[in-house]
Amino acid sequence: MKKEQSILGLIRKHYIFTIIFPVVINFNYLMSQTWSIDDDNSVISQIFFYINKGIFLLLGLNFLFFLFKRKWKSSFVVLVTPFLMLLFFISFLEKNGIDSDTVYFKINKNKLLEMVEKEKSVAQDGKGRLVKIPMNGAYLGCDKYLVYDEIDEMANPKGNFRNIDYVKIYNRMTDKINIEKAYDVLSHRMEKHIYIVYFCLNTG
Predict the structure, then answer these.
(1) So what's the pLDDT on residue 38?
(2) How far is 188 from 186, CA to CA, in rounded Å?
(3) What distance lies between CA 93 and its chain's CA centroid?
(4) Intervals of the chain under pLDDT 70
(5) Which pLDDT belongs to residue 168?
(6) CA–CA separation, 137 vs 143, rounded Å?
(7) Distance between CA atoms of 65 and 72, rounded to whole angstroms?
(8) Please, what is the angle between helix 21-35 and helix 72-95, to 10°?
(9) Helices 21-35 and 100-107 meet at what angle, rounded to 10?
(10) Which long-range contacts (CB under 8 A, 24 or more apart) does 7-14 make?
(11) What is the mean pLDDT of the chain?
């Protein structure tokens, strides 16, 4: 009876399943999320999504094939290694700040900057131009904006984001207007003065 290769040898032998497929899955997921930001590109987003479904199906069938052949080590390798590689690539992308928003901005940079130039400033503090442009693709319970902030207060995690994440609430008991924080803010810097910002309802 022929002895099975080492784990490392099997990973190399089945590199399409253990390395190539996880790379493709990560790429397709990123592209699917990126193209879904614009409603006009939902069909393209679905294509990437269904390609990934097909790849997961192939991974499952390959695992069952090795189980049927009683190649236990091979079945373990093609089941576990792709998911470990997926976690590695996800961690790599997150560490390097690569997500659907950054890819979308790079692809549509000229169009988005042109929109910023045409939009009126909403700044009320006289400290520089501030532009908010609504975007699609927000998380549940959040609003998403492309923000141009000339003084880059968005980069300050302790800043008040020039009051655009606060609301004025009239208090009938004291007959005063209170300024309260209405949102939890997630700010992603795209380049100098340009941010993609999520304003999520503060339920706390």
Answers:
(1) 83
(2) 7
(3) 10
(4) 1-4, 125-126, 156-170, 178-183, 202-204
(5) 63
(6) 9
(7) 11
(8) 40
(9) 70
(10) 7/73, 7/77, 10/73, 10/74, 10/77, 11/77, 11/81, 14/62, 14/74, 14/77, 14/78
(11) 84
